[in-house]
Specification:
228 residues; 9 helices; disordered N terminus
Length: 228
């Protein structure tokens, strides 16, 4: 059983990390939970999130599993939620410093206020879908914190996202881990699902952009000449 991580060092391969001969073969559950928390809460995106959970589910389906699926499911979901809470409050902590920073070519203060408006309007869907996209899931809760997205709203939808991602990917590994194609392309499959989910929004933004470019400019008012 192998995962499709040929371009990465072998210590990014969950099968190497968690199975016989790997450094965490005798500590599968703690290893999964620590990696999930680091990826979601400590701004370190280069970790095998989806494939890690998928592999954990696969291993829990073996005849003598290193961890029970009934322990793994809630533990992963809770850890993923706690990780995002940590990242959110990191964002809240660094947000005020950004407002005190002078505008530069790469950073404008209005970026933060626009991000706040975005998260208040579209944040719930973003918080949930971002869970399934590597790297994006690491920084989305930080941006939500920087933009001061309403915390109760963030918390509620983050719980939903943590359960869907932590439980869903793990269950997929439990039931589908022995399907070679799915096992070897798990990250690509989830990214494709997310892209399909946000296509309507992309099309809507594209339509508005095209319409705004085609809209004629308002003619300048013509003043009437008065004869003395």
């Amino acid at each position: 059983m192998t995962t499709n991580l040929a371009l990465m060092p072998k210590w990014f391969d969950p099968m190497y990390l968690l199975t016989n001969g790997g450094p965490f073969a005798h500590a599968v559950l703690p290893a999964i939970l620590v990696i999930v928390f680091i990826e979601t809460g400590l701004l370190f995106p280069l970790l095998p999130g989806d494939s890690l959970l998928f592999t954990g589910g696969l291993l829990s389906a073996q005849p003598h599993p290193p961890v029970s699926i009934w322990v793994l499911l809630p533990a992963v979901a809770i850890t993923a939620i706690l990780g995002d809470q940590c990242a959110y409050w990191i964002g809240r902590a660094i947000g005020p410093a950004l407002f005190q920073k002078e505008d530069t070519r790469l950073f404008k203060k209005h970026y933060v206020t626009e991000s706040h408006a975005f998260f208040e309007k579209y944040g719930p869907k973003t918080i949930i879908l971002a869970r399934f996209v590597p790297i994006v899931r690491t920084f989305t809760p930080v941006l939500a914190g920087v933009s001061k997205m309403t915390y109760p709203k963030f918390l509620g939808f983050d719980i939903v996202g943590g359960i869907l991602w932590g439980g869903g990917v793990t269950l997929a590994g439990y039931f589908l881990g022995n399907v070679a194609f799915i096992r070897n392309h798990v990250e690509a499959i989830f990214i494709l699902i997310v892209l399909v989910s946000i296509l309507p929004g992309i099309f809507e933004i594209g339509k508005r952009t095209v319409a705004s470019r085609r809209a004629p400019t308002d003619p300048e008012p013509v003043g009437s000449d008065s004869n003395a």
